[in-house]
Amino acid sequence: MNKDESSEESTQREAVEESEEPTDLDAAQAALNRMRQAATSRGDRRVRSAAVHRNQKKAARQAGIPRSAIGAARDPQGLGGILERLVAERGWSSPVAVGSVMVQWNNLVGPEIAAHCQPESFEGTVLQVRCDSTSWATQLRLLSSSLLARFDADLGAGVVTKIQVLAPTAPNWRKGGRTVTGRGPRDTYG
């Protein structure tokens, strides 16, 4: 094989390689592209090289920006800030406020009311509260306007617009899924 033949074979190989179009992307490249798209949708920006990053830091220092704020976009972030941003982006403010009413009930109404009245459900902007006695139900009805003002101050306006006070429930002797119509067995009570 002489030199002309080997160069001719190499040019033929290059021509064949150029004509073949890749039908499948490399799995690693596909994963990298998906991660880049996810980062772009989160609002993260891509830094091209370490030299560009160093130049940005140098320019920021010369401009008098404090060192702690120079790499702020790339620094680790606190979990609270990330969750606040997630709640704001997804529009979850009212469901989070509902959860905070249920979880922070003792702090919002005080320990004395919380000992006798518990939130039962939250539908729309109406909070249903069950009290353990009729006197506490009456007391909570009287305090509802001041509680609504406290909820507006602590949770935001419009989260809770009405407090529906439910009376205490009577004891239920029915056990299980099946019941007997009518009087039922009375052998226990004579």
TrEMBL record:
Chain positions covered by the region annotation Disordered: 1-72
UniProt signal peptide: none
Basic and acidic residues bias locations: 1-16
Pfam family membership, one: DciA
Name of protein: Putative nucleic acid-binding Zn ribbon protein
PANTHER family xref list: UPF0232 PROTEIN SCO3875
